[in-house]
Design a protein that fits this description.
Helix content is about 0%, strand content about 60%. A hairpin with a 3-residue loop joins β9 and β10. The strands form two sheets. Strands 2, 4, 5, 6, 9, 10 and 11 form a seven-stranded mixed β-sheet that branches. The protein starts with a strand and ends with a strand. With about 120 residues, the chain is mainly β. The protein is built from no helices and eleven strands.
Length: about 120
């Protein structure tokens, strides 16, 4: 059984910073891509950033230059450093692991979500 555990959300003022972490646990051989998605009230879930095991990254246009995704392959952990936060970044942030290889399956997983609120 694979689990994704997120941490680091919270309340921050506009212009502030937060760092999200997501650790995957279980009998994992490898993970192709790990990323972050977010869902604001009344909106669809959207990609924020993703990173492959080789280090290739992709960002939503709205966060380019402000957010940085990184990954520790040995620890199956992904991070999202969020700087210059804006009120429109307020959302529940979900961790995703895609192409997770275990002894019994190849599939993707989602974390439970962590709330990020940007407000003065």
């Amino acid at each position: 059984q694979v689990q994704l555990v997120e941490s680091g959300g919270g309340l921050v003022q506009p212009g502030g910073s937060l760092r999200l972490s997501c650790a995957a646990s279980g009998s994992i051989f490898s993970i192709y891509a790990m990323g972050w998605y977010r869902q604001a009230p009344g909106k669809q879930r959207e990609l924020v950033a993703v990173i492959t095991s080789g280090g290739s990254t992709n960002y939503a246009d709205s966060v380019k230059g402000r957010f940085t995704i990184s990954r520790d392959n040995a620890e199956n952990t992904v991070y999202l450093q969020m700087n210059s936060l804006k009120p429109e970044d307020t959302a529940v942030y979900y961790c995703n692991a895609d192409g997770v290889v275990t002894t019994t399956s190849l599939r993707g997983y989602w974390g439970q979500g962590t709330q990020v609120t940007v407000s003065s």
